[in-house]
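Forum > Structural Biology > Help requests

Title: Can anyone predict the 3D structure of DinB family protein?

Hi all, first post here. I have the sequence for DinB family protein but no way to get a structure on my laptop. I'd be grateful if someone could post the structure tokens.
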Amino acid sequence: MDDAPARWTRATAYPDMWTDPDDDPRTGEGAGPDGEQATLRDFLKSYRMTLRMKCEGLDAEQLARRSVPPSTMSLLGLVRHLAEVERDWHNWIREGDPLPTLYGDPDGDFNGAVADPAVVDAAYADLEREQAATDAALAGHPDPGERVGRDGIAVRELMVHRIEEYARHCGHADLLRECVDGRVGQ
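Reply #1:
Sure, ran it for you. Structure tokens for DinB family protein below:
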């Protein structure tokens, strides 16, 4: 007997997609954005949306469900982790003392991802707040070659690193979601 959920998707046009192209909120009309900064922001927006899509429709228990022992990874843990790293990126940009971590110890983002609706709501609120703070801090630096913060990191490097972090974790989210309820797709 196998406890694995049956694989499924909502897509009807392409069975390996998460949703049909006409229903995908990540696809825009016409040509892509103009310029390097706009392109980077567009890719980041798409990966942020992908993470949200991979979590939608799940309850607190499903979001907090761990992958495979001894891993502490869960979809809720990923949301919390990305809130934590958004804060860290904001610390790279800002002058002065860094803001404290959100979840305490180095693994607090994953270890604290428990099946409690209040924890889920707080995680999404943390993520939105930290994304907005980092986005606002970067908005004042339109030149991708400008160096910012105490370490003099280039805005371009920071943006690419953010995209890479979301892309990697969206890959994790694909597998985690499939383990929870069998939903697959791009």
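Residues 36-181 form a domain with the Four Helix Bundle (Hemerythrin (Met), subunit A) fold (CATH 1.20.120.450). The radius of gyration is 18 Å.
Shout if anything looks off.
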